[in-house]
């Protein structure tokens, strides 16, 4: 199965009402080399969305962006989807425009991130194809598509096509939207589900102090963690330092805050803002000497995957060893 209509339907008129209230807000061209720039979006959930003006929004969870304040029906839809959200956007494709064939390699059950769509404005002459099969989705319907497979889109109509696109982390609520036999089959292939952080008592500065360390971040992982740089500039190892901050571990790469981690088990940390299919496992809870970054459900070539062109098969699990070193302020007698 490459698509599924899920158990929710929404009022097309109310969707259109909210869309009209958002039309005056600026949209941004979407990333990727497989379109000519006409494909644009308005972000409704983003990292640090509830912290306007924060210097490093990528250290925080995805949260409603200011634009969502103008869209009460969309806000209610997203609140009713009882799962952690990643990026949420209103994506717009004008008449006569197209999006070339590509893959969203990290959109799968094993990586723990799925892409849901609610069409708002569409037309029979808008052609969307996933893995050779044409999709026919109507306004107000909630759909999942397997966008890890090759897909493309062409707007042959005379209208501007608009979809609400919701990236979610997999949890029991999300799985409950799918047919039970489909979920059972996916469990056989592997599912990475969201894990909540441990109680606050396990995430105090004192509890996290043993994890303060330094290490080299492998170049293979830089497309996931090297925020703010071009891919060519990320093709090298980076010096990383890890320190407790605000109940989390914050990791700097070459001196710049790059990502944060939350403790979900004694020795295991999730990556804030990333799906549950990527996490860090330390070898001990007290002064660990090594760690591994575990990545599930993506191909080996993360550079090509970030560009939307998957090279090679999906790898069920990859482990990247980190040799930990003490930082200057952890060296003691």
UniProtKB/TrEMBL annotation:
InterPro entries reported in the protein's UniProt record: Asp/Arg/Pro-Hydrxlase, IPNS-like_sf
Name used for this protein in its record: Aspartyl/asparaginy/proline hydroxylase domain-containing protein
Domain Aspartyl/asparaginy/proline hydroxylase: 28-168
Protein source organism: Actinomadura fulvescens
Source domain of life: Bacteria
Transmembrane residue ranges: none
